[in-house]
Specification:
This protein is α+β, with helices and mostly antiparallel strands and 357 residues long. It is built from nine helices and 15 strands. Strands 1, 2, 5, 6, 7, 8, 9, 10 and 15 form a nine-stranded mixed β-sheet that branches. A hairpin with a 2-residue loop joins strand 1 and strand 2. Helix 2 crosses helix 3 and helix 8 runs antiparallel to helix 9. It is globular. The chain binds ligand DP6. The site of ligand DP6 has 17 residues, from helix 5.
Amino acid sequence: MSSLPEKKNDQLTAAWQSPSNIALIKYWGKHGRQLPRNASISFTLSEARTQTSVQLTPIEHTEEIELSLYFEGQRHQGFENRTKNYFQELSTLFFPWLKEHSIRIDTSNTFPHSSGIASSASGMSALALCLCELDAKLRNAETDHESFLKRASLISRLGSGSACRSTYALLALWGTHESVPSSSDMYAIGLGDELHPVFRNYHDDILIVSDREKSVSSSAGHQLMENNVYASARYNQAQERLTAMLQALREGNLQAFVKMTEEEALTLHALMMCSSPSYTLMTPETLNVIQHIQNYRRETGIPVCFTLDAGPNVHILYPNEVAPQVSSLIQDHLLPMCSGARIIRDKVGSGPCPVAR
Ligand code: DP6
């Protein structure tokens, strides 16, 4: 672990920054306590990050978690209630000391709050990293960096499934998969060392087509997979695609990467449309943009492609060497297609880091 919590008048503080991630093979469907129905794999991002500090002040044991949470400087009741429930569970499973401290959390995002970008992955992983650092300090436990990250990934997963992949640099895999013996449903593992150089500085420009709140949350979407008639075929498909995706990521096979990434994004949204009740999160602008990207690729041979998460915004993925051409495509064609759209320029990144105080 690279930093120790600061101790002041018996107060302990830990602070971390953690990034968002974008799944290439998607986690969609879960069971039990945040366990995935299939393995997923993601690029860790660089710019879309959450910074969180957790400060503990010792108190007498309490049954209720004593917590205040400030989001971008303002007390935030919604996040506070969600975090209290999460801490209540963690206090029984891992961290009994949560009930022996008054807790203050300060958290903020480096990307605009209303951007429609999922902040649960960066937010939950930053929080879990703080908790694991504080726990090591309180128990005087020496842990190696790998075990620390694995534990932080497991704690993140209990907050939000996709968050468990954010604890690793470059590339992370979550979910048991036959081709990766160390993989687990309990936590993600880092596969950054295996990533081909062409993907190490890959771009992900996020076109914010709409920043309106989603009509169906991810949690509700996962739930609807339980009665989706295509569910079991989908889970098998994801396991198979993951083998092929991993090979493309290791070999730097852009053609295979582009094909699978887009198929996977459209499969995710097809599953939503095939749920009962059915729903659609793509908008006409989303479709216009993705068709334009596909036509452009066909005409120019430039290996730019898209992926989607559970919303209308389009992640535009491409290698660094075609950045000038794709930048013109976005400015001249894609942005004008969506009124009020914005772009967040991101890249594959090096993972979380402790914040110096
Ligand atoms: C479409 O991780 O947000 O982004 O576990 O209920 O918090 P919860 O769901 P969440 O689901 C993310 C789904 C996805 C695909 C992915 O990131 O793999």
